[in-house]
Write a structure and sequence with these properties.
The chain is α/β, with parallel strands linked by helices and 257 residues long. 27% of the residues lie in helices and 19% in strands. The chain has 6 helices and 11 strands. Helix 6 links the parallel strand 10 and strand 11. Helix 1 (19-41) packs across helix 2. The structure holds 6-phosphogluconic acid.
Amino acid sequence: MIGDARAVRGGTLVVARDASDLARRGADVVASVAGKALEDRGRFSIALAGGATPRALYEVLAADAGGTARRIDWSRAHVFWGDERCVPPEHPDSNYRMAREALLDRVPIPAAQVHRMRGEDPDPDRAAALYESELRTALGAAAPEIPRLDLVLLGLGPDAHTASLFPGSAFLSGMAPLVAAPYVEKLAAHRITLTPPVLNAASQVVFLVSGSAKASPLRDVLEGEVRPELRPAQCVRPSPGALLWLVDAEAASRLRA
Ligand code: 6PG
């Protein structure tokens, strides 16, 4: 089971031994997708996941920046975020701050190619609209074309949310704006998030799921009833892009063998 790829709802599942194996495998996937994008089009675009899980993956990428195994030409990379908390960039909860500390301060990516969501904006809707414009401009996709990211990294919450698409969100449909600023009741806060249209336009989406607390939501999303309004991660069905669930053994512990 460990390491084997098998088909799951709408994609592929790979089970890593533990969190550090997950980080290494995830870094391998990022380097592989980046290498192909750079070879095919001379540019690589990635939307980073927030939360705690991806930090170890970012740190592996930063540590290998000079290595060959996972060498990425960061000078030709564009980095976006899947979502952001509505806090300033130096706030401990900022997804930007986490990625900056774990990766971006340690690789030679031009500042103009780091596309931060303005969580500090007192008007989250304005921040979302500005981000959609920045995404379109950076990827050369004027409306109504949907920008195509090479890679999107996502996490899975205990309630099966992903990015900042939470159960009951108004932005779960295929008609949503590309970037939205939902008010999340349970958090009593706004968030800024990419929405299903742009997530599903990506060439490759990778969920990173670690730990026993995610075993039930992972089983519900992959093997339970398809109820995207309750399980927003089920809205992520990239086409024609590919979907990979990269999970550790603890998170996979409730899946059918
Ligand atoms: C966020 C994330 C969110 C996260 C999941 C999993 O801003 O919090 O985008 O969707 O990926 O909640 O978070 P952990 O990795 O911390 O469990």
